[in-house]
Model the fold of this input.
Amino acid sequence: MSMGAVSDPIEAGLSRGWRVMGGAHGSTPGELVCDVAIVGTGAGGGITAELLTAAGLSVVMVEEGPLKSSRDFRQLESEAYPSLYQESASRQTADKAITILQGRCVGGSTTVNWTSSFRTPSTTLAHWQAHYGLSEFTDEALSPWFAAAERRLNIGPWLAPPNENNDLLRRGALKLGISSAAILRNVKGCWNLGSCGLGCPTNAKQSMLVTTLPTALDRGATLLVETRVERLVLEHGRIGSLRCVPVNPDGSVASGAPISIVAGHVVVAGGAINSAALLLRSQTPDPNGILGRRTFLHPVLISAARFDHAVEGWAGAPQTIYSDHFLDAAPVDGPMGYKLEAPPLYPLIFASTLPGFGREQAEALRDFSRTHALLALLRDGFHEESPGGHVKLRGDGSPELHYALTPFVMEGARRALLSMAELQFAAGATSVVPVHELAQAYGSWKEAREAIARLPMRPLATRVVSAHVMGGCPMAGDERRGVVRPDGVHWQVPNLSLHDGSIFPTSIGANPQLSIYGIVNRLATGLAKRLSGRDVRLG
Amino acid sequence: MQRRTLLRLGLGGAALLTLAGGGLALLRPGVRDGRLTASGRAVFAAVARAVLDGALPAAPPDAHASALEAHLQRLDGTLGGLAPHARSEVSQLVALLSAAPGRMALCGLDDDWAVADVSAVQAALQAMRTSSLDLRQQAYHALRDLTNAAYFADPQTWPLLGYPGQRPLS
Done:
């Protein structure tokens, strides 16, 4: 089968007459009028667009990134990072201690994520009920909303064997007697290539790009791409219009006239960090000073191990096994817990994330095909010493996240490096390198344990990354604790809703895509009913 | 404008500049119109020889020179893709490093980038990497990460890693 055999649903839709404007798709009129404007086309924006158009509402979607599709997805990091990721996959916290991977393209992070699908853990929901007045957010109440999203996006068990990178996690956990399990994936007819993070070249991944967004566009929605909403214009306490500008691939403002969108209701779904920044730029009311605060990252630690046989971490479905042993080992609001997963390995990101340089680095890179990597994502936001980060605006209006890696967080980081090294040796590693500037390759668990115990766990020396951005515009049962109400509507601005990961009052404690799909499914179904009087459901 | 951006690099920035006695007005940007300036190229060429020691082809001299030149061109592309604020910070950093007082204060490197030998640049990078000053560590990460990202983007470098390239769609 050749590349030509993969049909391209975006190309087909455009030739059917989808209304797409901006960037290569032609200039936009100076003013657009619609029932609902949706800012962002990721997990939250996509689900919302399908449901609102099902209700017969006229919808305009605005996306900062470009419209790319399977024919563009050539499995090349050098093309994927600048075109599909925020800030060319180089977004960082203000102190440069955490690099953040976040999507910026039509489909948002769902276009480039690794397909890991988890419902919001019960412990997380119970914490929200107890601390944020979200009494309706129970497993029972949310279950049908998750189930509908799972059906819509073909989320289910992955039946092929895990690749070696993931199977080493399974075998190491088994050896240590700790739990591991299989990860559900949102794929249909997956080719098991392993290039999900660079855009799915076969359209098997059921991202927003190939599911909800084509449905909304077929129903007549308008999509503006390479266009940023600069601000929501408040008039008498409501959003009157959205002021938008065309943007260049590097995110700078492009030449071309600004666009004004007049909408009856506005759904902001730009992803955490960006959604908070838009509200900050728009100076929406924030009487309790909480907007942009409590932004969470699931700070990620990495451990690389060398094996005596091929691992080929780039090949095959990227994340298929996980362990929650270290999340379940202590209460959710106790010492920081972490989830273990095995990330895919590609040359550019591997070489720039692993510590070291020169001949030592060249030697390590020669072992790339025999290298196994584990990551530990820390469950932030459940303890008073894990308050998350604070989104502020730079002079040019772009967002900057200030996130303090507190001693409490870094204590969890040290335990995470220890757990990963122990598991990798149990799986048969010949050496383990904790990804830390002052660490080395250790040849035994005893040596690694003693060295990691002594590592100075300070930011910058400890490599920390993130692929999950949450919070900043939290949902809560009262306006003292929340930016939005439990139905997603802004506490002070009645025609403004937030439908993305920014509304989570803590981190999720699992890869967040299904949490966004399921919870936004509920919020958007309710919004559709209020605006149109119609009952709708995902297709 | 320059001053504000520099200060954002870290609290140590202003102190180091004072220490270095560098007049801000004398600094030349390291990146202009999205591409490295001549002084920026000198810094990143020296960094590449140090960071990619063992990865860059060592011989013949022609192969080394052309691999380095291709790398610097890819680096222009990498810089061009960065967000404007990040590109501006890299430009300021390189400006600081291009001037002798900044180079000595931040890297502890005595010789100019164009003539410093690989081991001296490696010693400077290692000192920055293990420094307790945020600014020096941030500078190390920026130089080293940008270098690796640009270099290993090229399929010609993948045989070193044993990476076969894109998975075949067949």
Remarks:
- Chain A touches chain B through 57 residues (CB under 8 Å).
- Chain A has two domains: 22-153+206-294+468-532, 164-185+300-379+406-461.
- Chain A has a mean pLDDT of 97.
